[in-house]
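go over whats below:
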Amino acid sequence: MPVLPTPSAEPSARRGADAKLCLDFVNTVAWRNSGKPEERLPSAEALVEWCAKAGVLDAAGAAAAARNLSGSPDKASAVHLTALTFREAAYGLFRARVDGRPAPPADVQALNAVIALMPQRLALVPDRDGLGWRDATRPATALDILAPLVWSAADLLSGPRAERVKQCEDPKGCGWLFVDDSRTGTRRWCSMGDCGNRAKARRHYHRARDEEVAGGGRAARTEKPAGTKRAAR
């Protein structure tokens, strides 16, 4: 097999294992904790596009992957299904860590099954972008585009930073996972520019409303007609 960052007969991965890459992939289900989660990878084509945008595939690799999968619907379906199976198994394992629960055996088994399909990281060799992994034990396959994602998940889950993985606490059900690298370890939102700002706006609204109610509460009580029944809870 050629160096993984180099496109070959089968599309291959450009990046190595980035600790946060797998979480970005898991987060391709948006609003996971809401009543209407949004699937951002509805097809193999969408998967290839995501890998290109995330830097998993370079332009040549993405083009090769698109050609390869478009010419074989069965292969495209298998790659897409494997990607989603891996994503949901990874989510289940990260969520268990967030909740302080043991790793679900079914998710461990599912992730291990995908790991077994990936190339082995046997040696680092130079390529045009720096260094890449080489595995000479088997030919490249279409599934190799998932390798950096799978390595990232396995490394993060088994490493010391696993305890820093959290899930966004946005009450609308964002559900995105993130690594809390804050000094205090008290980060609650996937992004302060998104869910964090909404949370601040909600707190401000409720605080202002409570102050308004407290300021007019006495007048409201004195004007309340005698004998009025308290509303049922």
